[in-house]
Design a protein that fits this description.
With 443 residues, the chain is an all-beta fold. Helix content is 0%, strand content 46%. The chain is built from no helices and 31 strands. The radius of gyration is 20 Å and the shape is globular. This is 6-phosphogluconolactonase (Cycloisomerase 2 family).
Length: 443
């Protein structure tokens, strides 16, 4: 088990500077296969750099209902009006985190506040809706490797739509890009993509105090290894940290090593707070670059975007194990341009899956989900009407899908047909600098 402050996992490889993940232009093959395998114990290297972790939180005894971030799904609003919090890249037209009033009856959004902070490119909302946590993605493309990214905590007043800065702590790595809450809400897990080869991809565990403030990392886990795509897989790149539906396992998707690393989450301290599963990881095809993972509403299936290959994969899920069942290309047949699979989200009823594709494609693929097998059937494709649709969100009513075009300074709100899953033409446009993440919160 892990009892220290940091651990390195995997096989050391030579390290080279890695291309930024903000926009992909890889053109890797789309087909992939996966299998779970057991690694020899000799491949596990632990480095203890601090005091032992002591956790007093009781283990969860009920299923963990969660979205892709581990946060509870947004509650329905009595009047159909929600807060829409938007994360951005700053340095251009954006100043930080923006809050809009979103009317699900009309699809209209009106800005009500902004909280200045650097590169809040991914955010998560606490389950009580009183706090918002956002990465500060640094150093970015051209910053020095010595610069570590941060995570900022904000108080949130849903009634007024105002964010109040609480504190900021180190993410213990470069380029933090994803956040998830532990099932008990006591810890915030942050994925560090790490453009810089040193320290390389990692994830850190930050304790959350009762007042919503963050403590310094109690555990940092580094991955080691790489993949065949030069400039993108020269070292590890942890791109997301996702808990299983029952809250017992943590999956960390590593674009650099082509692995879905699997950890047990045991807050009762029986195995340490986080410890490697016996089978260690699920492999995906070399060079595909796994990015984001979400679980289906039934908890029996999981869906994965592979950024470099431009694909979405379907897995059967059982007690921490993932078994590949299907791989679908996102680009149109015969497409020759650059691809870059990014986000994926299910409709609230779980009947449709939407996946964004950047590069030269700049669209959202729409799939119907078989409610028995979990497999996907394409039903449509919608242009994002801009460049680099990194993230998007579906409002809790299921009537609207909002997508941000990072490199076009626009977001579009599409009306969604809940019977067919298709997105209607003539969406509403929002002018906003480098929008990259969206979260809905009931008032």
């Amino acid at each position: 088990m892990f009892q220290g402050h940091a651990a390195a996992i995997g096989v050391p490889v030579s390290r080279m500077p890695a291309r930024t993940h903000a926009q992909s232009n890889a053109q890797s093959p789309a087909d992939s296969h996966a299998q779970s395998r057991t690694a020899p114990r000799g491949l596990i290297r632990q480095i203890i750099k601090g005091i032992a972790i002591m956790a007093s939180v009781a283990a969860a005894t009920t299923a963990f209902a969660q979205g892709s971030t581990g946060a509870a799904p947004a509650e329905a609003s009595a009047n159909g009006v929600y807060n829409l919090i938007v994360g951005t890249y700053t340095g251009g037209k954006s100043e930080g985190l923006y809050v809009y009033r979103f009317d699900s009856k009309t699809g209209d959004a009106q800005q009500v506040s902004v909280a200045k902070t650097v590169n809040p490119s991914y955010l998560v909302v606490s389950k009580d809706k009183r706090h918002v946590y956002a990465v500060n993605e640094l150093p970015g493309d051209n910053g020095p490797a010595s610069v570590r990214g941060d995570v900022s905590a904000f108080g949130f007043d849903a009634a007024s739509g105002q964010l109040t800065f609480l504190d900021k702590v180190s993410a213990q790595g470069n380029d933090p890009c994803y956040l998830s809450l532990s099932p008990d809400g006591k810890y915030l897990f942050v994925a560090n993509y790490s453009v810089a080869a040193d320290p390389g991809g990692s994830f850190a565990v930050l304790p959350i105090a009762q007042d919503g403030k963050l403590g310094q990392s109690v555990l940092t886990v580094h991955h080691e290894g790489g993949g065949p795509v030069k400039g993108r897989q020269d070292n590890a790149h942890v791109h997301s940290t996702v808990f299983s539906p029952d809250g017992r396992y943590l999956f960390t998707q590593d674009l650099g090593t082509d692995k879905l690393w699997t950890y047990r989450y045991t807050p009762d301290g029986s195995r340490g707070l986080v410890s490697p599963a016996e089978w260690r990881y699920t492999d995906v095809k070399a060079g595909t670059g796994p990015r984001h993972l979400v679980f289906g509403n039934d908890g029996r299936h999981a869906y994965l975007t592979s950024e470099l290959a431009g694909t979405v994969s379907v897995f059967n899920y059982d007690d921490g194990h993932l078994k590949l069942e299907q791989v679908e290309k996102l680009a149109e047949p015969g497409f020759k341009g650059a691809v870059g699979a990014a986000a994926l989200h299910l409709s609230p009823d779980g009947k449709f899956l939407y996946v964004s594709n950047r590069g030269d494609a700049n669209d959202i693929s729409i799939f119907a989900v078989d409610q028995t097998s979990g497999k996907l059937k394409r039903v449509g494709r919608q242009a994002s009407l801009g460049k680099s649709p990194r993230e998007f969100a579906i409002d809790p009513s299921g009537q609207w899908l909002i997508v941000g075009n990072q490199n076009s300074d626009t977001a579009y709100v599409f009306r969604r047909d809940q019977e067919t899953g298709l997105l209607e033409a003539n969406p509403k446009k929002i002018e906003i600098g480098s929008p990259v993440d969206f979260k809905f919160v009931a008032q």
